[in-house]
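W.,

You were right to be curious about this one. When I first looked at the sequence I had no strong expectations either way, so I just let the prediction run and decided to look at it fresh. Below is the sequence, 396 residues in total, followed by the output.
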Amino acid sequence: MDEVNVLAASYLLRRSQVRRRAKRRRFWVHPILRRRLQHGEFHHLVQELRLDDGRFQRYFRLTRAQFDVLLARVGARVSRMDTNYRRAIPAAERLSICLRFLATGDSFRTIANSFRVGTSTASIIVSDVASAIWDVLVEDYMAVPTAEDWRCIAEGFQERWNFPLCCGAVDGKHVVLRAPRNSGSMFHNYKGTFSIVLLAVVDAQRCFRVIDVGGYGRTSDGGILANSAFGRALRNGTLQLPADRLLPGAEHRGPQPHVFVGDEAFPLRKNLMRPFPGRTLPRDRRVYNYRLSRARLVVENAFGILASQWRMYWRPMELQPEFVEKCVKATCVLHNFIQKSNSASAIRGPPDGDVEPLPGLGRVAVNNSAREAIRVRETFAAYFSAEGAVPWQNNV
C-alpha cells in the first residue's frame, strides 16, 4: 500500500511540474508590446488623424469634438492607476480601442496588434469602456420618457410623418453571433442564424427612446415585447402616456389614446397599432396600412443608421451574449449622442409623398384582439381617409 501511495505522489508531482513549465511565460511583456508608445496606432496614426476631421470621423464614427466630449464624460470611470510594474493605458487610448472595435467589428487580436496591447487586455478594455459609455450617457440621451416626453414625441410624429397621437415606432433587430456553447436552440432564429434581439422604440427623429437587449433569437418580436419591461408597462398602463386627446380636425370622433406603431409581428392593442391583415382590402384600410407603414419607417431607418455607423453588426460576433449586450447598448446610446449632436442633419426627412410602403403588409397573421383595440384602429382608418387625409396618399 505504501508503494502505491509513493507512485501516486510521484505522478502528481511530475504532473504539477509539467503544468508549471507549460504555464511559464517567455516574456512578462512581449517586446512588441513594449514599443506601444513608439509604434502603437493611438500614439501615431490617431494623432495624425486629429489634423483631418473627416478622416478622424470615418475612423472613430465620431468627430474630434464629439470624441473629446465623450472622453470628458467617461475618462474618470475608465482610468486606471500606474503601478510599480507598468504604466496604465491612458483613458483616451482605452476609449479609442473600444470605439475602434465597435466601428469595425474586427477581432480582439487584430485590434490588439494595431494598438500594441495584449489580446486579453483589449477584450477587458472594450467591456469596461462599453459599460462606462452606457452608464454615463443613458441619463442624458436615453432616459425613461415622462408624460411630457411622450407628448413631444407625438407632436414630432404628427408634424413629420402625419400620424397623430403616435409615441413611437416599435421593432426588433437580430444581432448575429456565434452559437454560444451549450445553448441548444435558444439563440437560433427563423433566418437560420444565432442571435440576440434588440427591441427598440424610436421617435420621429430616429433616436432610440427605449431599448431591450438580450432576448433569445428564437423568440418572436411579439414575445420579446411581452417579456420586456416596456411591454409589461404598456400592458399594465404604467408607461405614463399622456391622456387621451382629440384627433386634429376630428372632434366628433371623440378622444383617442396615444399609440405606438409596429408591424404584423406585434399584437393589436389599445396602445399598439398594427396593419390590417389580408391582401384585398377596402380603400380606407389600404390607406391606413400605408400611413402606418410610413410612420414605422423611422425604426427601420434607425436600425440602418446604427448598422452603417457601427460595423460590428456586419458580421457574426464571436463573443458571449452578455458581452454583446454591453456593446449593443453602447452603440445605441452613442447613436443618440451623435444624432442629437448633429441635430441639423437629424431633422431632415424625406419629401412628402416619396415614401413607399414597407414590404410585407399583405401577409399578416390574424390574432385575437380586444374590442377597444379594434375600435381605435378603425377610428384611425376612418380618420386617415377623411379629415386626416394627405394629398399624395391616393397616388401611392
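Here's what jumped out at me. Confidence is low (pLDDT under 50) at residues 344-368. And, maybe more interesting for your project: The chain has two domains: 27-140, 147-384.

Coffee later to discuss?

I.
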